[in-house]
Amino acid sequence: MQVSLIPVATAVNPAALHGTTAVVFDVLRATSTIVTALASGYRRVYPVADAGIALALANERSFVLAGERRGEKIAGFPHGNSPLEFIGGPDTAYHMSEISKGPSFNNNVWKTSDDLVLTTTNGTKAIRRAQSAHKVLTGSLLNARAVAQAALREGLDINLVCAGTAGRFSLEDTLGAGFVLAEIMRQLSQATSEQHTASINMDDLAITAYGLARFYHNDPLSGLFAGRHGQKLLRLGLEEDLHWCAQLNRFDIAPVFTGKYITVCSAAYAC
Ligand code: MLT
User: Who lines ligand 1 at CB under 6 A?
Assistant: First the structure.
């Protein structure tokens, strides 16, 4: 089994993903937000690249709407891209119906949909760029073990797709990929021979990510503080988001991008 790492989403070669499992990382914060929302009761997250399209989709289907650009909430959107906004699940969210009432939302929010439309600067684009893969999983520190298990279960070569920021390397995304790799190695070492006969062959970027995760093994939060985007979020007063995104294996879900939306597949909800 070949495990490769793509350092920024703009470097994705769609043809190279064919027949592989892609795990997409935007640890600060899109994939962490998506995992948190799905673990908190949302049924689907629609990753949308364009803000106007996101607004139209949410309006048309009365979905919860969330959007971020350059780390901040898109003006006029009810939600930004902080995972903390979605911890309470869809019952505590503002819905599109609130938008029509103008900028001052009333407190009478009601559940009109369990679906969330999310558009972010890099992460949602990265997820859509990976859709030529056989399976696209959403990875973060929050669900590293679950997504490692899901990727191994597919039995295909693995591409760890790091979103990056504006086409530049982001430490936290490769750190997230490194923690998933560490979980893959741990599960392989524990597996009996008939479960995982495959050994893995990592490319140099994957080996680097693995080393990064070992360096920050006891303190992933300091890894999130170290990167440029983490520093920007701190300047924006969003330190709590970094603490949330740094939690290792808080959720046991491995969300799948179907090409339209991201959801958690199960016996009850095959996808
Ligand atoms: C991104 O998509 O670039 C990030 O998620 C931005 C952010 O939420 O800070």
Answer: 26, 28-30, 68, 71, 81, 120-123, 165, 233
Pocket test of ligand 1: the residue of 35, 70, 81 to mutate, having most ligand atoms within 8 Å of its CB, is 81
**Ligand 1 center to residue 161 CA distance, Å?**
15
pTM: 0.92
Tell me the mean pLDDT in the region 58-67.
Answer: 93
DSSP notation for the chain: -EEEEESSGGG--HHHHTTSEEEEE-TTTHHHHHHHHHHTT-SEEEE-S-HHHHHHHHHHHT-EEEEEETTEEPTT-SB-S-GGGGTT-GGGS--HHHHTT-SS--S------SEEEEE-SSHHHHHHHTTTSSEEEEE-STTHHHHHHHHHHHTS-EEEEE--BTTB--HHHHHHHHHHHHHHHHHHHHS-TTT-----EE-HHHHHHHHHHHHTTT-HHHHHHHSHHHHHHHHTT-HHHHHHHT-TT------EE-SS-EE---SSS--
pLDDT class for 99, splitting at 50, 70, 90?
Answer: low
pLDDT for res 91: 83
Task: Please identify, by atom number, the ligand 1 atom nearest to the C-alpha of residue 165.
Answer: 3
Which atom of ligand 1 is nearest to 81's Cα? 8
Residue bearing the CA closest to ligand 1, atom 7: 71
Ordered domains of the chain (ranges, CATH)? 2-263 (3.90.1560.10)
